Amino acid sequence: MVRLITHNILACHAKGCTSNNFPLQFQDVSIELREAEFNADFLRGFLPRLEWPALVGAARQLGDTSLPEEQPEMIDDEFLQKLHHVLLEIHVEEGAMVCPNCKHVYPISNGIPNMLLAEHEIG
Ligand SMILES: [Zn+2]
Questions:
Q1: What terms describe the molecular function in GO for this protein (predicted)?
Q2: Using one digit for the tens of pLDDT, what is the confidence trace for 48-93?
Q3: 9 C-alpha vs ligand 1 centroid, how far in Å?
C-alpha cells in the first residue's frame, strides 16, 4: 500500500536516473483515510530518518497542509498526532508517482505501486 511513510524512501531507479530522482510526484491520485494505531515511540524513533521537505511536499500534493515547513524542535503530542495521520493514515489508492527527473510514471492501482521498469529502463 502507498502511504507517505513508504513514499518518503522511494526514488526513481530507472537506468541512468541518478540525480533529482526524489521525491516522486503524485499525479491524479485518489486517497482513502484509514485509522491506524497511534504509537508515539515509533514516530519519535522514525522522525530523524524522514526526508522532511519531501514529506511536507507530498502531504500537500495529497491535500494535507497540517505539517509545518520546518521540522519543529519541540516534539509534542499534538505534532506527533499530525505526523501520525500524514505518515500512516493517508492511503493512496489510485493514481501515479512521476519521477521529477526522467518523468518515468509509476502507476498505483488498488493501493499497490508498480515499481517495475521495462527492460530498457533497468540499469
Ligand atoms: Zn527517473
A1: protein heterodimerization activity
A2: 999 999 999 999 999 999 999 999 999 999 999 999 999 999 999 9
A3: 14
